[in-house]
Amino acid sequence: MTSHANTRVVDTADVADNADLGSGTSVWHLAQIREHAVLGENCVIGRGAYVGTGVRMGDNCKVQNYALVYEPAALADGVFIGPAAVLTNDTYPRAINADGTQKSADDWDAVGVTLKRGASVGARAVCVAPVTIGAWATIAAGAVVTKDVPDFALVVGVPARRIGWVGKSGHPLSEDAGYWVCPVTGDRYAEVDGELKEVAE
Questions:
Q1: Which residues lie below 8 Å from residue 135, measured CB to CB, with a gap of 6+?
Q2: Nearest CA among 31, 22, 21 for reference residue 1
Q3: 198, exposed or middle or buried, with CB in 10 Å at 0-12, 13-18, 19+?
Q4: Which three-class secondary structure string do you get for 127-182?
Q5: Can you give the CATH number for the domain in which 50 is found?
Q6: Which of the four, 34, 48, 170, 189, has the lowest number of CB atoms within 10 Å?
Q7: Residue 3 in this model has a pLDDT that exceeds 70
């Protein structure tokens, strides 16, 4: 394991020798970090969480208790993965081939979930690969994401659908005089062709 200053890995965690943990990162009880995973600075990996082989994670990410992040997922800076959430990697899962033989690692191609900066995935949500979750988007608890999610979108349900927009604070935006406004920061956004863009002050 490559670890840097102030990295904390508890004794019951299972971290591969060739995983790379950034400065200030913490790995808690019973978590598993697989081979060649790369975690940025100040990440928190909760109890019983799983981070698959070769997963890439930016700085300041949080993977909560019992979340499953399967390879080849890619998480940008500031991504939140809620308790027991799952990022899948097999579009057509089977334990056996059509001829009845057991599948091996060579019998399928892993596909990943991509999460952009500041995105959040709620508790027990499932992101079915391959999908991209846009920057600052929020996936509600229990949602099942089967298609790409735009930046700043708030999606809920099975399958997940957009019901609104959220700002960088995570709070839902309110419509005001043709703009979408964050009740916490006051930031304004404009909706253009189904996408939300920040409005410069």
A1: 76, 116, 117, 118, 119, 151, 152
A2: 21
A3: middle
A4: ECCCCEECCCCEECCCCEECCCECCCEEEECCCCEEEEEECCCCCECEEECCEEEC
A5: 2.160.10.10
A6: 170
A7: no
What's the order of all strands across the beta sheet hosting 14-15? Answer: 14-15, 32-33, 50-51, 68-69, 86-87, 126-127, 144-145
Query: In residues, how long is the chain?
Result: 201
The predicted-structure confidence for 127-136, as pLDDT tens digits, reads as follows 999 999 999 9
Give pTM, 2 decimals.
0.94
Q: Determine the Cα–Cα distance for residues 126 and 139; give it in Å rounded to an integer.
A: 9
Residue 40, domain member (yes or no): yes
Instruction: Convert the pLDDT of each residue in 145-167 to its tens digit.
Output: 999 999 999 999 999 999 999 99
What is the phi/psi pair of residue 168, to 5°?
A: -65, -25
The answer to whether residue 155 is domain-embedded is yes
Dihedral sign (CA 146, 69, 52, 62): positive
Q: How many domains does the chain fold into?
A: 1
Please answer whether residues 37 and 52 qualify as being in contact, where contact means their C-beta atoms are separated by less than 8 angstroms: yes
Q: Go through 163-197 and write b for each residue having 16 or more CB atoms within 10 A of its CB, e for each that does not.
A: eebbbbeeeebeeeeeebbbeeeebbbeeeeeebe
Gap between the Cα atoms of 28 and 5, Å rounded: 17
On whether residue 83 sits in a domain, the answer given is yes
186 assigned to some structural domain: no
